[in-house]
Design a protein that fits this description.
240 residues; mainly alpha; MetI-like fold; 10 helices; flat; membrane
């Protein structure tokens, strides 16, 4: 009980594998959903339309200031009182998506505010609608600026997926609890689980750092190119 026994992984590989695959599935779905919802909420938060601004601000501030567990319990325990029953997997995925979206919205909003306002005005004057200007001009720049922050939120999302174990969401932690109840080897079981999570989070972390360096280099090159003075051709020079 007090020593590491990695044979637990071999004896219960089917459970660990199922939980690992379910965790990947939850993470991907919540990642895509939270990014889309977060971008929409960020646009709402800076929208000149007051009702949209109120909705975006109220949603983000409310979700950011309550525990993730409460959001998941709303779907798992609260909706059945209204006649809507969801299993633990769906409830956990929805809760994780909405909770993460609030933090991504704040990150994207901060990025949008760093983009010079003149770019939005120029896009509008060229005939683009507010939504088109945001999607085509402002958001790409904002996301590029806050990519490290968004990447960290995605890493937190993967780790927070362990909340599904509380509502029998069939994730990695849920099956780890089952294995531990059968083997009574918590040190071995949860060390193996930690390694599984590292398999998911470390590549994400390296990818975020790589993209951050890549974008930083491209920005530096763009600034250096922009700052170089143009050479004027001598009068009378003929270009072949």
């Amino acid at each position: 009980m007090g020593t590491l026994d990695f044979n637990v992984l071999m004896r219960h590989s089917d459970r660990f594998l199922e939980g690992f695959l379910n965790t990947i599935q939850v993470s991907i779905m919540a990642l895509i959903g939270s990014f889309i919802l977060g971008a929409i909420l960020a646009i709402f938060r800076i929208s000149p339309v007051k009702p949209l601004n109120w909705i975006g601000t109220g949603f983000v501030e409310f979700i950011r200031n309550i525990p993730l567990l409460l959001v998941v319990f709303f779907f798992y325990l609260g909706l059945p009182a209204l006649g809507i029953s969801l299993d633990g997997f769906v409830s956990g995925t929805l809760g994780l998506t909405i909770y993460t979206a609030a933090f991504i919205a704040e990150a994207i909003r901060a990025g949008i505010q760093t983009v010079p306002r003149g770019q939005l005005e120029a896009a509008r004057s060229s005939g683009l609608s507010y939504v088109q200007a945001m999607n085509l001009i402002i958001l790409p720049q904002a996301i590029k600026i806050v990519l490290p922050s968004i990447g960290n939120q995605f890493i937190n999302l993967v780790k927070n997926s362990s909340i599904l174990a509380v509502v029998a969401g069939m994730d990695l932690m849920y099956f780890a609890d089952l294995v531990n109840s059968d083997t009574f080897q918590p040190l071995s079981v949860y060390t193996i689980v930690a390694l599984f999570y590292l398999v998911l989070t470390l590549p994400l972390s390296f990818l975020v750092h790589y993209m951050e360096r890549r974008f930083g280099q491209s920005d530096a090159e763009a600034r250096s190119t922009k700052g170089k003075p143009k050479k004027n051709k001598p009068a009378g020079q003929v270009t072949m």
